């Protein structure tokens, strides 16, 4: 990944971490990063592509590097969210129009298959249950204690 692209991703992370915002556009990114819209369009087709890359480079990469099992992955993911609430809430609400549930299901199913040789039907329920609990947590603005979220996940 090129330096300008990394700078853009880091800028989005910093901006979304600073305070709750209702709208963040390519124009917002251009202003806050000091990078022209033309350069941004060189790397990304639209703001939704930026959000996906931010998720992959900031959240997923960190979570995966600290995970040795699927259980670790879930635990690290919950910990990341808990430690970065403002960023995660902003990203969640800004991607509301995207098909994020399917995207998350795809990612977690892929990771589940990395940690297990064979995906069985109950494992699909694990991912679905995780996404359900995660969605409910976000819809409550992450107000539920992390401990209670983990307890809910353990029931799945």
From TrEMBL:
One Gene Ontology molecular-function label: DNA binding
Coiled-coil annotated residue ranges, if any: none
Keyword terms, alphabetized: DNA-binding
DNA-binding region, residue intervals: 25-44
Chain ranges of the HTH tetR-type domain: 2-62
Transmembrane segments: none
InterPro entries registered for this protein in UniProt: Homeodomain-like_sf, HTH_TetR, TetR_C_Firmicutes
Keyword Magnesium assigned: no
Protein name as annotated: TetR family transcriptional regulator
The species this protein was found in: Companilactobacillus halodurans
């Amino acid at each position: 990944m090129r330096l300008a692209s990394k700078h853009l991703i880091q800028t989005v992370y910093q901006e979304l971490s600073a305070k709750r915002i209702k709208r963040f556009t390519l124009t917002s990114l251009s202003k806050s990063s000091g990078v022209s819209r033309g350069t941004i369009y060189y790397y990304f087709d639209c703001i939704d592509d930026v959000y996906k890359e931010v998720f992959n480079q900031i959240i997923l990469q960190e979570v995966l590097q600290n995970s040795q099992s699927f259980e670790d992955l879930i635990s690290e993911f919950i910990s990341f969210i808990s430690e970065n609430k403002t960023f995660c809430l902003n990203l969640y609400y800004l991607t509301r129009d995207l098909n994020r549930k399917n995207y998350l299901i795809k990612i977690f199913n892929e990771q589940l298959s990395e940690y297990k040789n064979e995906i069985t039907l109950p494992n699909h329920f694990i991912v679905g249950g995780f996404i359900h609990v995660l969605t409910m947590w976000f819809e409550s603005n992450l107000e539920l204690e992390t401990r209670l979220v983990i307890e809910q996940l353990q029931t799945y």
